[in-house]
Each structure stands twice: as structure tokens, then as C-alpha cells.
Design goal:
The protein has about 190 residues and is mainly alpha-helical. The chain is about 35% helix and about 10% strand. The protein has a three-stranded antiparallel sheet. The longest helix has 24 residues, at about 65-90. About 40% of the residues are buried. The protein binds zinc ion. Zinc ion binds near residues 13, 15 and 149.
């Protein structure tokens, strides 16, 4: 992966669960989406939720719940603050082009659960209510207290024929033209998009 500056969440065994991307890529492109799921088991579990229509349910929840809307807006602010802190730590500094732009549909919509779950894993529980909700919903397939890495990264198998993360650059606005480094095994498929 290129432009990964930190690993904000790890499996109990130490393998990365989430990679943090620099807010400005090496080629100068401003990059609003910071937290990427790196674990195939979590990524595909979250894709199942999306396929089951969970994003629509969450958008309906948001429409009908003022408290949730406020908490989700706070998650957006937390995302921006975390990204700014990563920019500082990595020596990149401020990236004014993406001021106020987070990811995943925040602060008012849900457009990518991978983004929200990545944020929740990086920030810990209680920061992103819908990311936390999605994490709870994948507990049938993945939980934080166990290692699911055995066989998860199939380094000898075929490269997937399609991008299993479903979105390529997770929830990315149109200002970035280059696919994000989600997983090395999907790089070919994403580049072909
Ligand atoms: Zn593990």
C-alpha cells in the first residue's frame, strides 16, 4: 500500500485491521478518506450488510432520530479532527482543499459502511454510532476479541476477478481520480474500473 501512514487498529494477533491514509497523497492529491479496512473478513462482512440494505435502514433511522443525527454529526467532526492529527503527525500538515469533507456520506447520509466501520475500529466505541452499529451487526462473522486471520489473506490464491470491497475508493468524493489502496489483492480490479 502507498500513502499509508499509520495502522490505527489491529487484530488481537497484531495484523492490521485498519490503515490510515495520508490526507495528501505523495502525488499531491488531497485525500479525504482516511481509514480503510484492511482485513478481508471484516471487509466482506460489511459488504454483506450493504448488500442486505443496511445503509437504507440507517438513512431512515437518521431521518427519524434527531439525537442520532447529532451523534453522527459529532462522528463527522471527530473524523476531521483525527485526519488533521494524522496530517500533523505524518508531517503533511493542513490540507485546506478537503476542509469539512469527511467520508462515507457523513455528516448527513450513509453511503459507505466500510468507511464507518473503519472509523469505529480506529476511534474505538462511542465515537461513530452507525459504525458501531454496523460492527455489532457483523459480530456473527467478526468480533474484536478473536483472531480471524488464519486463511484470511490467501497469498497463494488467484487475485479476485472483481473488487470485493464494492466501492473501490471507499465513499470517496469525486475530487480524487485514483483508486485507493484498499487491499493489494484487489488493486488490479480497481485499476480496471
Ligand atoms: Zn489476527
Amino acid at each position: 500500500m502507498r500513502d499509508v501512514v499509520e495502522i490505527p487498529a489491529r487484530c488481537v494477533c497484531g495484523n492490521p485491521l485498519v490503515a490510515a491514509t495520508a490526507p495528501r497523497l505523495g502525488n499531491g492529491t488531497p485525500f479525504p478518506t482516511t481509514f480503510y479496512l484492511t482485513h478481508p473478513v471484516i471487509t466482506s462482512a460489511v459488504s454483506r450488510l450493504e448488500a442486505a440494505g443496511v445503509m437504507n435502514e440507517m438513512n431512515e433511522q437518521l431521518a427519524g432520530d434527531e439525537e442520532l443525527r447529532a451523534a453522527y454529526r459529532s462522528a463527522h467532526e471527530a473524523y476531521l479532527a483525527a485526519r488533521a492529527a494524522i496530517g500533523e503527525r505524518s508531517g503533511i500538515g493542513a490540507v485546506p482543499e478537503i476542509d469539512g469533507i469527511s467520508a462515507g456520506g457523513m455528516p448527513t447520509r450513509v453511503k459507505c459502511l466500510h468507511v464507518l466501520v473503519g472509523h469505529s475500529l480506529a476511534a474505538g466505541p462511542g465515537v461513530n454510532p452507525l459504525g458501531d452499529q454496523a460492527l455489532a451487526a457483523v459480530s456473527e462473522w467478526w468480533t474484536a476479541d478473536r483472531c480471524y486471520c488464519d486463511g484470511a489473506w490467501d497469498t497463494s490464491g488467484e487475485v479476485p476477478a472483481k473488487d470485493l470491497s464494492r466501492h473501490g475508493p471507499q465513499g470517496l468524493p469525486d475530487i480524487v481520480g485514483r483508486p485507493a489502496p484498499v487491499r493489494k489483492s484487489s488493486g488490479t480490479a480497481e485499476a480496471a474500473k
